[in-house]
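Limitations

Structures in this collection are predictions, not experimental determinations, and the ligand pose is part of the prediction. Treat each record accordingly. The example that follows, with flavin-adenine dinucleotide as the small molecule, is included so readers can see exactly what is and is not provided: the inputs are given verbatim, and the output is the predicted complex.
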Amino acid sequence: MNETTLSSGFDAIPQAILDKLTRFDMPAVRGIDASEQTMEVAGVTVPVYQCESLVLGSGAAGMRATVELQRRGVDVLVASTGLFAGTSACSGSDKQTLYTASTDYKGDNFVKYAQSLCSGGAMDFSTAYVEAVGSIDAMGGLQYMGLPLPHDDQGAILRYQTDHDEAGRATSCGPRTSKLMVKVLFEEALTLGVRILPSCSGIQIVKETVDGAERVCGLIALHREEKRNDYGLIFIRCEDLIIATGGPGELYRDSVYPHHCHGGLGLALEAGVELCNVTESQFGIGTPRTNFPWNLSGTYVQVMPRIYSVDAEGNEIHFLKRFYRTTREMVSNTFRKGYQWPYHSTRMLDYGSSLLDLAVFLEQQAGRKVYLDFLRNPEPVNEGDDFSLDNLDPDVREYLENNEALQELPIDRLRRMNPLAIELYRMHGSDLAAEPLEFAMNNQHMNGGILIDDWGRTSLAGCYAIGEAAGSHGVTRPGGAALNSGQVFGKRVALAIKRARDGKTNTVADAAVVSGAIEGTLKDADRFVSGGSVRKPKVVKTEIQARMSDNAGIICTADEVKSALEAATALRCEVEAEGLQVSSASMVGQAFRWRHMAWVSEAVLTALDYYISAGGGSRGARAICSEDGTRCPDAKVEDLSRFNFIEEQAKDREEKLIVSRVEEGLQVSALPVDLTPEVQREFFEKGWGSYLIKEG
Ligand SMILES: Cc1cc2nc3c(=O)[nH]c(=O)nc-3n(C[C@H](O)[C@H](O)[C@H](O)COP(=O)(O)OP(=O)(O)OC[C@H]3O[C@@H](n4cnc5c(N)ncnc54)[C@H](O)[C@@H]3O)c2cc1C
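Predicted complex:
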């Protein structure tokens, strides 16, 4: 493409070029042959697989760890429920974002970058710094593997500003950045000859005691292709396990995750692995899962489509006019959802952009469907106060001017700024140029997860967690930091494992421990099939998802969280004691997954209840509403006094909340974090020597 074509924007780009970023094939993957090694447990033949490092999950994080491990000569096996399932392969937004140190203009400042990652609290500065410096290599590695990140002729990657991003460190390959990441990582893995076990779900971590301390020795999994026993049960013997199973997207009814994202937090909790910051999630506007789940940040809202709801009688309601005072205020805040995408309680104040989130949430609660219409400009808030591109807040007008996007209609502005955004919906059955798009407030991402240190190590020796499974983020995170974190920690776990393994020979797992664990799992599976319980996974799913969306969404109260926790604990105890009921052996995976999810839901509510009971205020994704609250959003005519909320306490930023499994359930404790922006400077000759020794 020449400079003339570039300067005339998207209008001149041939469709075939755009298609490469949205309509591309994933590589064909051939799974490994069935293992011939088996063991007999309670009269059942159980196939056994062996590897040094087992990567569980094949999203962008898991595949980065895989490639980095294989390159370092570690014998790695990837086992995954769906090779191209999960959020990396199936989610995105108008410009799905990767947040890395900027190579733009005068370069970046890693300390400032790290500060922006941990500024919301509950995250150590050291972790943030590791992600900041590691981002250069994370991005460079992906570029080397073929990720088409846009850059200028000097080689600087093109940037823009995203959520919680003061410096403009965001970049993107378009709506499908993370799918393209998975693609290039898989291609690399295949070139390197990595062993892959598709259609394989981990259901139980097996531990043994070595020198008085517990460590991982393998994983019990269900393999859909396996026919040597009724359940497809296999055992994978490994020295190290990397949990890269993504986030618990199935936790909420109102969710923009793709279907079947269960994550690995329940698997970890059952094995006694500690979780952290599970109170912290992101909620925002997106298309519902019943259609095509997709995030609606960036240009989708920056073009300021008309927003309205429809009641049961089919009447169109201009609900935002009850919230904002002028048309300019309403549309400028619609625009700001582009880079202030996640809901935040304080942005409900002063007629800010999360007042829009609250308004949408209330329409949903009232049973009305909400739409974006790209064919019509916004309706006026007051009579005579018509929408005009000449009457916008200065930042909004400047952005549209800079992007030459002052066309008459939202669809034309979108076509000008980001035709891929239109293309993506067209591919999934919605033509934004022909009909309005239904949307809703949804759960999208969990910032918390499995507690890790700065090498991705969990509280269980030999067990690592990366990507969305890991609780590496604090309360807030810039958009794109999730994908970066998965890449950085994907490499760091490989380094840590290589260093820890060098010179060591593989151990032999304690056969009695392994048989005992498998026998226990087989008994659970038998019980699920023989109908010991009346509860079916589907019923448990509906109950958990409704409880989480209704009581642990963007608006919470102490009482509602407490009673939700009581119900969640009762459900988990019942599921533990009586199991679940499935109709056939091939369905036991559902039962194990929903037993895990019962734990995860209880863990989130336990942490939330602990936080609120200790006086914790509104932060991150949630407003903690109470009569004792000191802040209250205002609206033009709507009475919002019931959303009086408690402010965040500064002291809460200084700790992570840890959820651990104890004898009878779960317990929460606080772990102090160090937010001091200090970096230990290393000197070359001194540091070089110690590096060479560590690398071996
Ligand atoms: C709509 C949407 C938009 C987003 N936009 C952005 C963005 O712009 N920037 C950003 O940084 N982040 C974004 N995120 C978040 C980001 O996409 C995810 O955090 C990230 O892709 C997670 O990658 P992962 O590799 O950890 O997990 P995933 O990509 O979810 O992969 C998990 C893998 O684990 C497998 N698996 C799950 N359980 C098991 C099991 N028990 N056994 C075996 N395998 C298992 C799955 O099949 C899958 O292969 C977005 C998320 C959504 C939903």
